[in-house]
Design goal:
Bound molecules: 5'-deoxyadenosine, iron/sulfur cluster
Shape: globular
Strand order of the largest sheet: 2-1-3-4-5-6
Helix content: 25-40%
Number of strands: 19
Strand content: 15-25%
Length: 447
């Protein structure tokens, strides 16, 4: 009889990709995917803890499985990912939800198969949380079961050394560990050979790639190496820390047409005092200089960012500095967050925590500004053409969809299956965040 798995993912791209690895491991054990929790023999939660609400979502959804587990005692419930890696989290989870069978930390993902065997061999719950000491395996083969064709994620490094004062990531993901360039190149080349058309390189701070392995190959050199392949594909990367974002990288992005001219450069705040308290190691002036350099080399470059309001001691004046920076940097769009204290981080212990009321007021004003800028930028696409990589068919809207180089979603109708193909669209409607267009045949040039 077939056995089914169902994976629920929270958090960032890194987690989305790691869920593909979890899927790969489960398939090796004979499981196949299913469409609903109720059909599953194993349910895996791949959790996030970057903000409190990410944790609350996971807690709520795990709790909601109590009934299902009662009705189906053979069901295995596993919880992994960043949330479980926090000190005391595994115990807390087990206490709150005794029906959880397996708890595994971020460093134990590859052991999930063995943990499953262990659970199936005995009655007791299996808890495996390694401390942040894992090394990257020499021949770290791609174990992922990918469902994101024509896009593929490739890890280039794990962990983070930066210790921004608000951030839990270094605690739950450990120190920076870079994969060997030859393993990354082999994985990327295999994916392109298989027909994948867009590769996104993942790391918490891609600009420090190789620093932990003696700088055998720098991040810009790695990008240039990948781009030696001349078939048509797109290359993206995330995330960059502005403090390490340099001219050499900008030059490589400018020189290689495969690299998308969309850079995600999280700034977090506009006030130098707050940036210092955040331990970001740059000022708003330095950030804007890097943006200027980027636009000098790549005039058509678009920029996105992450912004946070309500960091401890943030005054109205500090907040105004953030609004000011948003106006100056001309972001295409920004991901906006309310500061959420994370236990164990430096900022969580700071005096001057901001009230929910003030945080709410500031986030509303920030979102208002960001949205008005995004809308303004969007309307200029009307009548222009843009090239998208078709990635799916939306049966509700009855049309194909895909993203352009700048990450904008474009919709179009076609009588042929276009998934995995580059399609040039003439934009007929750009009123919302999505673009609607008509296919322009025999023209692959972008305007
Ligand atoms: N509270 C709110 N936002 C956070 N981020 C990271 N840590 C926190 C926190 N404690 C945001 C940052 C980061 C993005 C991934 O999440 O803006 O760039
Ligand atoms: Fe990703 Fe950070 Fe959330 Fe972990 S805690 S899933 S690294 S965003």
């Amino acid at each position: 009889m077939e056995k089914f798995y169902f994976i629920i993912t929270y958090g960032c791209q890194m987690n989305v990709h790691e869920s593909e690895k979890i899927a790969g491991i489960l398939r090796k054990r004979g499981y196949v995917s299913c469409n609903a929790e109720g059909e599953a023999d194993i349910i895996v939660f791949n959790t996030c803890c970057i903000r409190e609400n990410a944790e609350n979502h996971a807690y709520g959804n795990i709790g909601a499985l109590k009934k299902l587990k009662k009705a189906k005692p053979g069901l295995i419930i596993a919880v992994g990912g960043c949330m479980t890696q926090q000190p005391g989290a595994a115990e807390k989870l087990r206490k709150k939800f005794p029906f959880v069978d397996i708890v595994f930390g971020t460093h134990n993902l590859e052991e999930l198969g063995d943990l499953l065997d262990k659970k199936q061999a005995g009655k007791k719950a299996v808890v495996e949380i390694a401390e942040g000491k894992t090394v990257v395996k020499e021949n770290d083969a791609d174990i992922s079961y990918r469902t994101s064709y024509p896009n593929a994620w490739v890890n280039i490094m794990y962990g983070c050394n930066n210790f921004c004062s608000y951030c839990i990531v270094p605690y739950v993901r450990g120190r920076e560990r870079s994969r060997k360039p030859e393993n990354i190149l082999a994985e990327v080349n295999a994916l392109l050979d298989e027909g994948y058309k867009e590769i996104t390189l993942l790391g918490q701070n891609v600009n420090s790639y190789g620093n932990d392995t003696g700088g055998e190959m720098s991040f810009p050199a790695l990008l240039a190496e990948i781009c030696k392949r001349k078939d048509k594909f797109r290359l993206r990367f995330m995330t960059s820390n502005p403090k390490d974002f340099g001219e050499e990288l900008i030059r490589v992005v400018a020189e290689n047409e495969q690299i998308c001219k969309l850079i995600h450069l999280p700034v977090q705040a506009g006030s130098d005092r707050i940036l210092k308290l955040m331990n970001r190691k740059y000022t708003s002036g330095e950030y804007l200089k890097k943006v200027e350099l980027l636009r000098k080399y790549i005039p058509n470059c678009q920029l996105t960012t992450d912004l946070m309001v309500g960091f401890p001691t943030e005054t109205e004046e500090d907040f105004q500095d953030t609004l000011d920076l948003v106006r100056k940097a001309d972001f295409s769009t920004a991901f906006t967050f309310v500061y959420s204290p994370r236990s164990g981080t430096v900022a969580a212990g700071m005096d001057g925590q901001i009230s929910d009321e003030v945080k709410k007021d500031r986030i509303m004003r920030l979102v208002g500004l960001v949205n008005s800028q995004t809308r303004e930028k969007s309307s200029v696409y009307l009548g222009k053409t843009t090239e998208i990589l078709c990635e799916d068919f939306d049966s509700k809207k009855n049309c194909y969809l895909g993203r352009d180089e700048y990450g904008r979603m474009g919709y179009f109708t076609s009588s042929e299956n276009k998934i995995g193909q580059f399609v040039t669209l003439k934009i007929t409607d750009a009123s919302g965040v999505s673009l609607y267009g008509e296919e322009v045949k025999g023209n692959t040039e972008e305007e």
